[in-house]
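Here comes just one.
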Amino acid sequence: MPTLSLPIRLNYASLRIPFHGRPERARHGRIHHMPHRTIIRIFMVLVGLCLAGTLISAQTSDTRKPRKFKVPPLSARIEVIVLRDANGKPLENAAVVFHPIEGDHDKGVMELKTNEEGKCVIDVIPIGDTVRMQVIARGFQTSGEDFKVDKEDLKLTVRLRRPGEQFSIYKSHSGTQHTETAPAPEKQATPPATK
């Protein structure tokens, strides 16, 4: 397979690189006749020029505006304690759900579980926000309320009750103002007689 060799005319006196090869080979001026030190020096000079050009272009292209840092708002620490209404004992593993509200829109949901002391703590809600809090536990009525976070440290206590009897219009309830009687069942239409 033939090799390709390019004639290169180098003036070794202008490069000030001493030539340590044989003088008869230096006359041909081919790169494969140059000593290895000379090739390495030339290569290092070319790499240095490429790196310098890259650094200069990187410095000039960094004229874009830096990102503006927006300081996050101060957040409140909200501690919620969930207790049984009947005996005041803490309720473990109750779900405490926070819905931050902006206008009429819900901005998301954050749910926490209470520990064995009936407590859970959240510290990411900004001061000044309105929050809807729901407390959900198996075997208890769901509790919920809206409140405005106006202090840096809030402690809320929620007492959950066992579910009561549901109100039905089909039963008479004593002691209530609602005295409507059960509606009479509708009569079914008799089909017309066929002959």
In short: Residues 75-160 form a domain with the Immunoglobulin-like fold (CATH 2.60.40.10).
